[in-house]
Amino acid sequence: MQQSNKVLTKNKHGIVSGTLSGLAEHFGISKGRLRFVFFILGFMGIGFIFYFVLWISIPNYSQRAELQERQ
Description:
mainly alpha, 59% helix, 0% strand, elongated, 71 residues
């Protein structure tokens, strides 16, 4: 099994903080679909909390090179 060199970080070209763009890039899914899911979850009340937790826990794009070296 081949190991991927992908590191989950925020994307520097994101709309707000790059959190959802980074997740979409890491998992290979559409940014628009992921944003739509979080938009719907926001109306349910859980989206804002989940986004905030991801925003705090995912490292910034500037740390990507350092994280890739650790792998």
